[in-house]
C-alpha cells in the first residue's frame, strides 16, 4: 500500500506539544520513545510515515499521537486507511 509522509509539523498553540509515531517510534523526528517536542510557534521538518490502521483492533498500536507534556491530554491522532478503494488520512 502507498504511504503518506508528513514533511513538517507546526505548533500554533501557546504550549509545547509532543509528537510520536506510536507504530514506529524510530520514525518520530527525534528517533526516540519520548516523542518530539515542538515549542509554541516552532515548525520542524521531518519525514514521518503515517501508519495504516484498518480496524479498531489495530488502532491502539498504529497511529501518530500529538499530546501535551505530561501525556494527560491528546490533541490529535493521525492514521490512514483504505476507504472505498482510496487512501484516506484521518
So how many helices?
Answer: 0
Q: Which structural category fits the helices and strands?
A: mainly beta
Oligomeric state of the chains in view: single chain
pLDDT under 50 segments (min length 5)? Answer: none
Terminal-residue CA separation: 16 Å
Q: How many domains is the backbone divided into?
A: 1
Major beta-sheet overview: 4 strands, antiparallel
Strand order of the largest sheet: 3-2-5-6
Q: What is the share of helical residues?
A: under 10%
Number of strands: 8
Strand content: 35-45%
Mean pLDDT: 88
The 3D shape can be described as globular
Q: Quick recap of the structure?
A:
This protein is mostly beta strands and 90 residues long. The chain has no helices and 8 strands. A hairpin with a 2-residue loop joins strand 7 and strand 8 (86-89).
Amino acid at each position: 500500500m502507498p504511504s503518506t509522509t508528513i514533511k513538517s509539523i507546526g505548533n500554533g498553540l501557546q504550549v509545547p506539544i509532543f509528537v510520536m509515531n506510536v507504530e514506529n517510534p524510530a520514525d518520530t523526528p527525534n528517533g526516540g520513545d519520548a516523542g518530539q517536542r515542538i515549542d509554541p510557534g516552532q515548525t520542524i521538518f521531518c519525514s514521518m510515515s503515517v501508519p495504516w490502521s484498518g480496524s479498531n483492533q489495530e488502532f491502539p498500536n498504529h497511529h501518530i499521537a500529538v499530546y501535551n507534556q505530561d501525556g494527560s491530554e491528546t490533541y490529535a491522532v493521525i492514521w490512514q486507511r483504505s476507504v472505498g478503494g482510496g487512501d484516506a488520512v484521518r
